[in-house]
Amino acid sequence: MPLRALGLALAVLLLAACGAPASAATTVTPGVLTIGDDLTYPPYGYLEAGEPAGFDPELGRALAARMGLRAQVADTRFEQLIAGAKAGRFDVIMSALYVTAERAKEVDYLPYFTTGNAIVARSDAGSRPARADDLCGLRAAVIKGGKIVQELAGPVSEGCTGAGRAPVDVREFTSDPEGSQALLSGQVDVQLTDAAVAKAAVDAAGSRLAISSSTLIAPAVVGIAVAKGNTALYTAVESALRDLQASGEYTAMLARYNLAPVDDALLAQVLPGGAGPAASSATVSFDWAYTLGLFANPELWRASGLVVVLAVLAWVIAVVLGMGVALMQRASAPVPRAVAGAYVWFFRSLPLLVLLIFVYNAPQVMPELRPLLASPFVAGLVALVLSETAYMAEIHRGGLLSVESGQGEAAQALGMPYAGVQRHVVIPQAFRVALPALGNQFVTILKLTSLVSAISLAEILLVGQRLYTQNFKVLETLLGVALYYVALVTVFDRLRVLLERRLDVRRRRTGLVERVPAEPAVLEVRERAHVRHAGEVVVAARGLRKAFGSTTVLDGVDLEVHRGEVVALIGPSGSGKTTVARMLNRLEVPDAGTVVVDGEQLGYRLDGGELVPAGGRELARQRRHVGMVFQRFNLFPHKTALENVLLAPAYLRLADAGELRERGLALLERVGLGEHAHKYPHQLSGGQQQRVAIARALAVEPSVMLFDEPTSALDPELVGEVLAVMRNLASEGMTMVVVTHEMRFVREVADWVVFMDNGTIRRQGRPEDMFVAGDARIDRFFAAVSG
User: Fold this and answer.
1) Contact 120, 183 (CB under 8 A)
2) Which 8-state DSSP code applies to residue 434?
3) Which residues of the chain carry a pLDDT beneath 50?
4) Would you state the pLDDT for residue 275?
5) Which residues, including other chains, have CB under 8 Å from residue 594's CB and lie 6 or more apart?
């Protein structure tokens, strides 16, 4: 009995001893060994059928079992592994993490095998570098934060320059597969990566890639890392690893993955004091001096300059192209609309990071692009422009929709072609409206440049990552990086505000900005004798018909206007008067019928003796002969009175600049506004704006002037000044078609009156004949407008 009790006691003690490491160790999740591993790094770690596989997950499960725990892998990008361990996101790092003196200051290492880098080249390459010395002048892909980065940029490149050769062009990628793709597409000449990873990449690529090095480049010891301060966990993992080694299981695992045991001599070179919890102490304070010192870092300043250039170029190009796509979306032809819509849909749906990697590696399938996309800067710019153009197009489309349709129609009526209308009238106004959103998009682009580090462009974030992968001051470095971005955004946001103010015409001060007089200006009105409805026909409309949906607006209208004649179109609202006027300069296209001005049919041209539809520029030339004054003025708000008058003549090059200016000032004097030449429309009264609109229409020297209810939007006391200008034009012999409800003007100035009702001409004749009672419908109209 005593012997039995003693045996039981020994068994309990033995079990307790075996379980001591697990029970004493502190883990993130009780009963679980959480392993930080970058699962984009075969054969060390990868996903197979959705489960972690490879050397490190396999070893991690074996260690956890020895410790009486369950293994759980936390997939983490390589550059975030140490930061994650220090933050307590996982218990150990097992991700082929090379042992370095700098890293040993941040984590406790448990060395577990030795490896090194191999050189991978394309099988069809002309030369295959076998040693580090052979890499001079070559573009080398490496994984971001790896030890090989410092080796290539430091000793190897220094040796190259010392021998009079170009240094190694180191291109950093966030994962080895991205580096392999860059190699296959010809964006880099070689790839340097862990020997086991290199073998896996070559096996996956088939005959396209080959390992060209004969020995390991920069051999290194690899260690399991544990956050400092957790000595119990370190001891438990170390004990479990020794058990695996003693059983022979670990040796078999190394052989299966073609890995070598720890090289003690190499380890002693890296960590002279040895690895383990006592090798160094943890640093827990925040290094403010280091963060502030980053503002004197020349690499970060160079990276900031690169970011600014990249962002500005991408923004400017995308703004221009985006406007083009937005205009295509508003085109009347269905094909451009469909193409623009598909472009916006596709590139707004595509993540920028995917697009960046695709564009950078596009030469793999389209070798012709290799000269263009060989530079990460150019590839990044192309990807940013492709993506941002889609967003800019939608911003511009909103701006274009905000511009009143009358602005474009007013420019068309002056004889300006489509390109001129958009460039000088519509786009400047749309851009001003869209500028706040466009400025916000610039800030977005500025921050999105950080993604270009995925294709090895040394922008601010990549430089920061290079720094903290060396010193592991992650928070301090990222704070400095963030402050660089904040500073850049602040500067450019201020520039945006200044640009907005510069484009806001309401903030501008002109040479004459006194308040508009309470009393309207009184113009001298010249007398005019009526002319006969006969003689040379300037405008002839035949059989005009128009329907909007199921509503017939015009139904067979015939109209003639003779030279020097004033024709008044009167009638109730909705009778079709304005539609007729708009058809006389092709702002409205008739469903049937023709309009001839000065013997030329509007909207058509002669081609081999046959009439064919006129193109945009030809139609613009025809419209120049038919000036139009709109009901709501439609002055261009971003231009002064004189600039409004001179815009079309200058664009059409009707005379030299000096002569045009004199003519414009003379026209403003003619309508009584010479002293207001440099005012903007918002500084003028309604009557003054309408008079500027009249001068603007006269500037292109039309054969006939159309007035579409020119006084209906004015205060009663401002009507007289506009009618006075129109009376004077009539007295000068200007041919005029006037849509109006001003019956006094009709009686005193009009030579011919056309009464319209329900889309037809009910009656027409001389004023003295029209105002004689006899037609009940016309009598009711006259009674309504008179009383």
Assistant:
1) yes
2) H
3) 1-3, 5-6, 8-23, 279-283, 512-521
4) 82
5) 541, 542, 543, 601, 602
Q: How far apart are the first and last CA of the chain?
A: 130
* 701-731 residue pLDDT tens: 999 999 999 988 788 778 888 888 999 999 9
14's CB contacts (< 8 A; 6+ apart) are: none
| Residue 490 vs residues 11, 61, 297, 392, 495: alpha-carbon distances, Å | 70, 50, 20, 21, 9
Buried b vs exposed e over 105-142: b needs ≥16 C-beta within 10 Å?
A: ebbbbbbbbbbbbbbbbbeeeeebbeebeebbebbbbb
Question: Do 48 and 78 meet the contact criterion of CB atoms below 8 Å apart?
Answer: no
Q: Residue 98's beta-bridge partner residues?
A: 222
DSSP alpha helix (H) spans, 53-156: 55-66, 81-86, 101-104, 147-151
**Closest among 361, 557, 564 to 456, alpha carbons compared:** 361
Identify the pLDDT of residue 17.
42
Compute the chain's Rg from CA coordinates. 41
Helices assigned H by DSSP within 157-230? 157-162, 176-184, 195-205
Question: Pairing between strand 735-739 and 626-629?
Answer: unpaired
Helices (H), 257-297: 264-270, 288-293
β-strands 704-708, 626-629 pairing: parallel
- Candidates 729, 778, 423; CA nearest to 572 is 778
Cα–Cα distance, 587 to 223 (Å, whole number): 78
Which residue, among 508, 87, 27, 484, has the nearest Cα to 296 in the 3D structure? 484
CA dihedral 240, 241, 246, 247 (to 10 degrees): 70
Amino acid residing at 83: A
Q: pTM, whole model, 2 decimals? A: 0.77
Pairing of strands 169-173, 139-143: parallel
Are 86 and 227 in contact by the 8 Å Cβ rule? The answer is yes
Structural tokens at position 145: 């934060």
